[in-house]
Design brief:
Layout lengths: L2 H40 L1 H9 L6 H10 L1 H13 L6 H15 L22 H37 L8 H24 L5 H14 L3 H18 L1 H35 L2 H6 L18
Helix pairs in contact: 1-4, 1-6, 1-10, 2-3, 3-6, 4-6, 4-7, 6-7, 7-8, 7-10, 8-10, 9-10
Length: 296
């Protein structure tokens, strides 16, 4: 082969890599934008409340709408977890583990959720989103209902504190509790998506522990939500359609990173090297509940 042929093949190879990279970015953008649009439908109760009930005195309706909208957010987290179009390394590892198990004549343990999206998909999302919605609806409602009750109690305490002269001293504590509660809600949905047979009580306890253990990720969620609200006030339709998926992707990434040590600890307790390899990007901690807590 001549030097010119070598150069031509290198040029063709570079163009091929560039094209694949461009397609990868395009697919990722399409998934994030499309999934964000689906989320507006899946979280319709919350969308309607925020549009038509903007007064703070309607906070009980807002909390109820959040609970009812939990499956919409859980389905989005499921798509983010497994969609090949996002080119996530954890997704690639998960599918590789599934292939390894199939070659060995085994299946993924039933306490770990099987992929919510097919491996062959590149940019499709509508069907998989609503299938995940139906699959996760009941458990996400069960997880968020007690959190909604606690949120109502905390906001009501804020009202009481505002009515007394010394109540201002309690405000920082209550606000911090509310912020941790919100992050606990996000982490709980990550666990709901990951563990289809988890006992809800244990799931919520571990979600709280994970939120506190890596509490600084709460800042990512707060900044993302604050930026989202600011954008909605400026241009509600444009930001809702184009920014919803991106904002929730950031929040999901923060919550999943908080849960990563727990994933690895659970995998270690399974004593299966193949399962451990699926979560090898995290770091374990012996303080979490054993695997038996996640089997009904």
């Amino acid at each position: 082969m001549s030097v010119r042929d070598d150069r031509d093949s290198e040029t063709a190879g570079s163009k091929g890599h560039a094209m694949r990279a461009l397609l990868g970015v395009t697919n990722s953008v399409a998934v994030v934008l499309g999934s964000g649009f689906c989320t507006l439908i899946g979280m319709l109760p919350l969308v309607l409340v925020l549009v038509f009930m903007q007064s703070p005195e309607y906070y009980p309706a807002c909390i109820l709408a959040c609970v009812l909208s939990a499956p919409g957010l859980a389905a989005l987290f499921a798509v983010f977890r497994d969609h090949p179009g996002l080119a996530s390394s954890s997704t690639a590892i998960r599918f590789h583990v599934l292939e390894t198990l199939e070659e060995e004549g085994r299946r993924l343990p039933d306490w770990i959720a099987r992929p919510y999206v097919d491996q062959s998909v590149t940019s499709g999302f509508f069907t998989y989103y609503f299938k995940a919605y139906a699959r996760l609806a009941v458990r996400s409602w069960m997880a968020w209902l007690p959190l909604g009750i606690i949120a109502f109690a905390l906001v009501y305490d804020l009202q009481i504190a505002a009515a007394v002269s010394w109540g201002g001293l309690l405000w920082p504590l209550i606000v911090v509790c509310l912020a941790l509660l919100v992050q606990t809600a996000f982490v709980s949905l990550v666990l709901v998506v990951e563990y289809p047979k988890a006992v809800i009580r244990r799931l919520l306890v571990n979600a709280l522990l994970l939120s506190v253990r890596r509490f600084y990720m709460l800042l990512v969620s707060i900044l993302a939500l604050a930026g989202y609200v600011w954008g909605l006030l400026r241009s509600p339709i444009l930001v809702a359609l184009l920014g919803t998926g991106l904002i929730w992707y950031l929040i999901w990434a923060a919550a999943r990173w908080q849960a990563q040590p727990f994933f690895l600890q659970m995998a270690k307790e399974s004593r299966d090297p193949v399962i451990e390899s699926m979560y090898r990007q995290g770091s374990g901690s012996p303080s979490f509940s054993p695997l038996s807590d996640y089997r009904q």
